[in-house]
Predict the structure of Transcriptional regulator, TetR family.
Amino acid sequence: MSTSSNSPYHHGNLRQALLEAGLIILEKQGEAGLGLRDLARAVGVSPAAPYRHFDSRAALLEALAVTGFQRFSARMEAVAATRPDNPMAAMGKTYVVFALQNANLFRLMFSPQLKKDARPGLAMASSAAFDTLRHVVGGDVGAGRIKALAAWAKVHGLAVLLLDGQIALRAGEDTEALIGEIISSL
Amino acid sequence: MSTSSNSPYHHGNLRQALLEAGLIILEKQGEAGLGLRDLARAVGVSPAAPYRHFDSRAALLEALAVTGFQRFSARMEAVAATRPDNPMAAMGKTYVVFALQNANLFRLMFSPQLKKDARPGLAMASSAAFDTLRHVVGGDVGAGRIKALAAWAKVHGLAVLLLDGQIALRAGEDTEALIGEIISSL
């Protein structure tokens, strides 16, 4: 790999550095604050440099969402690997906590703007992210599929209601404890 | 009530006409297309006229959300009044269908932008909207509250996943039938 004359990054490293900086900007400022020029400034390269890796802002957002699904998958696999007594509850809690810890990334991953149909890389990352969950719940057809969709709806709804400030915590109440209680209750 | 010299509306009628036009613009163009001037043009009054009823765009959005919660309440009460065999399932389906039929209004009702804490009228309308659901699920404290939050999370999650195009329908599959199956399955 060659080093660009005006960049301190090797080719592959720059892509990774752009994604890391992008994730930080996304969480701090929201999707609106995220442009390829801002990103170039953040990692200290020329304004044109990010275009070697992402041909548009949409391509950058897609790559960030893919990264999000990969991290989400890794968390799900890690939880399943601990062989919890109640895998559904453990994975459900992990889902909601991931959403709260990565609010803007989570919103981006499930944004209707990102057309999964038109973007095979994103569709694959998103589908792979749910493999572990699907495996635990019981498949992709018939009653298994309905059960998986119901489980998904529950944890996704809880994540969204908490993210959007719709569930009011009682005085002294701990968010993670409440998440655990709600997920165990159905 | 007096009629304004430059308006075909009685005072109370103009407020109602502005809200009706606002709901139509909201569904057609989304929240971004909704300004007090657009609204004045839509109902055929002077640009200043809407300010007699809403002192800002935020006040208009709040009034639209309140209207949304009132319509939502009426639907929930109507379903409960039919004494369905499974009230939770019937109300859950009504919740999701309301969201799909009033997509932008539903998003507005649960938007984190609208600060319910700071707006007593909105907080009251929103709380009243859930009275019927709370009554069926079993209360507002202890295990009843947790059960109510879990039921809410499930139907809200299903609504959001469908609105955001995250759940792919199979060929020939009917959305309402799928909603019914998912809600019955947990």
